[in-house]
Amino acid sequence: MNGPDDGVLAAARAWLAQDPDPVTRAELEALISSAAAGEGAASADLADRFAGRLAFGTAGLRGELGAGSNRMNRVLVAQAAAGLAAFVLERAGTDRVPTVVIGYDGRRNSDVFARDSAELFAGAGLRAILLPRLLPTPVLAFAVRHLGADAGVMVTASHNPPNDNGYKVYLGGADEGAQIVSPADAQIAAHIQRIADTGDVGALPRSLGYETAPESVLDAYIAATAAVAPAPSGADGLSWVYTAMHGVGWETLSRILETAGYPAPIPVDAQLHPDGGFPTVAFPNPEEPGAMDLAFERAREVGAELVIANDPDADRLAVALPDPDAPGGWRRLTGNQIGLLLGWRAARLAREADAGEGASLACSLVSSPGLKAVADHYGLDFHTTLTGFKWISRAPGIVFGFEEALGYLVNPDTVRDKDGISAAIAMLGLVADARGDGKSLADVLAEFDRTFGFFASDQISLRVDDLSVIGRIMASLRERHPESIGTTRVDAVEDLLEGVDALPPGDVLRLWLQDGSRVIVRPSGTEPKLKVYLDVRGDSADDARERISTLSDGARALLSERG
């Protein structure tokens, strides 16, 4: 049997000495004991837990729960909170006491991590405000602006697997409640590392002198979000199904529906209330195969016109409609389809409101180019950004933004982040307006195609156990550009690491094909996946479907060859 590395054992024991959590302490004690006794599996597990530390970046922290520097736990969160406190104090200067607001969802330990953070922020001399209970991520993003906070923290891992958690950071002031971007991420990370190097989170000052946010904060979010699309007469009698995907969306959404005047949905009861174990889904992500099966089953039972789903922290929106040609009679719209419809709605509203010069639509570079066609049609500016709402939300003059991963920013004056609840209200408004004109959501989709063109998209996700596979494929594509994908010649390859279109450098390759199609390849920023995004524009719906299918086959063959 292989014995443990002395350095790993020393690191594990030092970690154990400062761990305040009895669960992870017991977990780590057992591993140390087994590794010291020469058990190879325990030694390997211990080595993995201390192989490094979860990196803090623009997405904050995200990882598997457990003991060790390479896991999410109370020690790591304490280091992050103390490091963030130091950054906020440094940024604010000495003439005032800065404010940080903290929110959390229904995942395992989210409430514990949030309270630890509030105590550490207060102990560091900040005004710390903890949201009153588990609430959606968009409520936290709203609260940062509403309370005039210098920063915000949301404890969530969004739609990751059940045993993950995370720590997202927002900045107030000039950042207007958006997620952090460089160089703030590196500056915060440096403070966190300095705290970690001291070696004892137990010595960090704590205080119970944090505040609990009043209910008026949630009331203000509800009022602002209900105003996104008050129910028109076409909403009367709408039959729709809703799932919260075992997350925190329902309590807040239900109050907004009542305020805005929409009929209550038929709920997927088994998924309506928070449960960090996510017992009915393999992955609590509406994009994943099977995740919406219970919603479709319920919709078939009641003959619903529409299905709406939020992910567990309710910052994403999924929509499905009846389709006799789809398996089971229901079809989930792609993120691009939803984004284009909501973008069309936003463009009409902007024109009606005479939004003025500089008003814009924005989407990530991997999202459908159809949004530019909408912007051009209505005389609005258009911006392409790197992936993530930390970039989309910063687009100049933004009135609407989206990314194909089911994220939509429909109310930028209220929330500078993706918001699955306000997007749900906007979608209900769109559907209700169509019903008032005797149309279905399928009719609206067809009308979009006739107006703006037949856009089709697809995505390939290659999930890996070994991250080096992703690096190897990206390196291969850079060293030897593909001459064709399938039977279509590649005309140009843009490497965003070198800087393209004034975008910040990113690990992204963009390929333009001879027929105008586009293929984008990039590693996921939050999961062990390589993602490939495919976009075509056809002469008809059938032509677009055929072209995207052919392109997808060619892209899969390319990945297989290079992997």
Automatic annotation (TrEMBL):
<feature type="domain" description="Alpha-D-phosphohexomutase alpha/beta/alpha">
    <location>
        <begin position="220"/>
        <end position="320"/>
    </location>
</feature>
<feature type="domain" description="Alpha-D-phosphohexomutase C-terminal">
    <location>
        <begin position="493"/>
        <end position="542"/>
    </location>
</feature>
<dbReference type="InterPro" id="IPR016066">
    <property type="entry name" value="A-D-PHexomutase_CS"/>
</dbReference>
<dbReference type="Pfam" id="PF00408">
    <property type="entry name" value="PGM_PMM_IV"/>
</dbReference>
<dbReference type="InterPro" id="IPR036900">
    <property type="entry name" value="A-D-PHexomutase_C_sf"/>
</dbReference>
<dbReference type="Pfam" id="PF02878">
    <property type="entry name" value="PGM_PMM_I"/>
</dbReference>
<feature type="domain" description="Alpha-D-phosphohexomutase alpha/beta/alpha">
    <location>
        <begin position="335"/>
        <end position="447"/>
    </location>
</feature>
<keyword id="KW-0413">Isomerase</keyword>
<dbReference type="InterPro" id="IPR005846">
    <property type="entry name" value="A-D-PHexomutase_a/b/a-III"/>
</dbReference>
<dbReference type="InterPro" id="IPR005843">
    <property type="entry name" value="A-D-PHexomutase_C"/>
</dbReference>
<keyword id="KW-0597">Phosphoprotein</keyword>
<dbReference type="InterPro" id="IPR005844">
    <property type="entry name" value="A-D-PHexomutase_a/b/a-I"/>
</dbReference>
<keyword id="KW-0460">Magnesium</keyword>
<feature type="domain" description="Alpha-D-phosphohexomutase alpha/beta/alpha">
    <location>
        <begin position="54"/>
        <end position="195"/>
    </location>
</feature>
<dbReference type="Pfam" id="PF02879">
    <property type="entry name" value="PGM_PMM_II"/>
</dbReference>
<protein>
    <submittedName>
        <fullName>Phospho-sugar mutase</fullName>
    </submittedName>
</protein>
<dbReference type="InterPro" id="IPR005841">
    <property type="entry name" value="Alpha-D-phosphohexomutase_SF"/>
</dbReference>
<comment type="similarity">
    <text>Belongs to the phosphohexose mutase family.</text>
</comment>
<dbReference type="InterPro" id="IPR016055">
    <property type="entry name" value="A-D-PHexomutase_a/b/a-I/II/III"/>
</dbReference>
<dbReference type="Pfam" id="PF02880">
    <property type="entry name" value="PGM_PMM_III"/>
</dbReference>
<keyword id="KW-0479">Metal-binding</keyword>
<dbReference type="InterPro" id="IPR005845">
    <property type="entry name" value="A-D-PHexomutase_a/b/a-II"/>
</dbReference>
